[in-house]
Structures are given as structure tokens and as C-alpha cells.
Amino acid sequence: MKLKTILTALVIAGCGVSAVIAADDPVKVREGLMKQIGGSMGALAGIAKGEKPYDADVVKTALTTISTNIKAFPDQFPAGSEANSEASPKIWDNMDDFKSHATKLGADADTVLAQLPADQAGVGAALGVIGKSCGDCHQLYRVKK
Fold first, then answer.
1. Which among 7, 39, 77, 129 is least buried, having the fewest CB atoms inside 10 angstroms?
2. CA atoms within 13 A on the CB side of 47
3. Residues in CB range of 91: below 8 A, 6 or more apart
4. pTM (2 decimals)?
5. Rounded distance, CA 134 to CA 36, Å?
6. Where is heme c bound in this sequence (predicted)?
7. Residue 35 falls within a domain, yes or no?
8. Does a structural domain hold residue 30?
């Protein structure tokens, strides 16, 4: 029993260390933020395509995640964090424009969140607006694989 408790404590401590290390690495932080946004977009797309039933809580959570994460996102690009990233060097050359794209996506998400779509069609329409903002930024500021 004691061994199980000790092992559990070590695992929890290890997770905490990993989180601290990741928090110190802006590339990891921004990748994490973007993965959550991508997951949220996927959840909305599933509803919009009729692959998943409409669920107001899922829609609200997805939009809240997009809104929250995109507002924190531009702060994760300090000088010197260009390496080992899918981020284009253009970000650091055009930081004000990059930030304006993030601000637009945040505003779009907030607008949709304030008038939460009530059905599948509404989610599809909202996804069109939000998706365009995402795509516009990716075209300019993401290195293509």
C-alpha cells in the first residue's frame, strides 16, 4: 500500500514538473493552445456536418476555448522562439498584423458566443465566420508542412 502511494506521488510530481517545463517553453504553450482550438473547431465541425448532435454545452465550451486561447496566443511568440515551430518567421516581422488577426478571431468567437447558435445550421454559419479568421491567419503566418 505504501509503495502504491509513493508511486502515485511520484507520478503526480512528474506531471507537475512536465507542466512547469512546458509553461517555460513558448513553443509548447502555443502548440497546446492551438491544439485546443483545433479540437474545438473539430467539435463544432462535427455538429455542423451532422456527425454529432447539437449540444449547446459543447458549442459553448468550444467557443469559450477558442476565445480564451486565441487571446493568450499572441503573447507566446517572444523573440528567440522561432526555432522548431510551425510558425512563420513573418510573425516576428509583422507582429502587429499577427496580433490583429488573433484579435479578430477572438472578437468573432465572442460575437458567436454572445448569440449562441441554437441549432446545427447556426453552428455551421458560425463555423464559416470563425473558420475564415483561422484560415486567413494560417495562410499568412503558418509554415506549410
1. 7
2. 27
3. 77, 98, 141
4. 0.82
5. 13
6. 134, 137-138
7. yes
8. yes
The CATH number of whichever domain residue 88 belongs to comes to 1.20.120.10
Q: Residues 56, 98: contact at Cβ < 8 Å?
A: no
* Residue 83 falls in which region: left (phi positive, over 0), alpha (psi -120 to 50) or beta: beta
- Round the CA-based radius of gyration of the chain to a whole number and report it: 18
Domain membership of residue 107 as a residue range? 26-141
Residues 43-71, mean pLDDT to the nearest whole number: 98
Q: Which three cell numbers stand for residue 5?
A: 502511494
* Residue 138 assigned as binding residue: yes
Question: Does the annotation list 15 as a binding residue?
Answer: no
Is 113 a domain residue?
yes
Q: Is the pLDDT of residue 69 over 50?
A: yes
Give the per-residue pLDDT at 145: 74
The C-alpha cell at 39 is 479540437
52 domain residue, yes or no: yes
Q: Which pLDDT belongs to residue 22? A: 55
> H-helix or E-strand containing 19?
helix 2-24
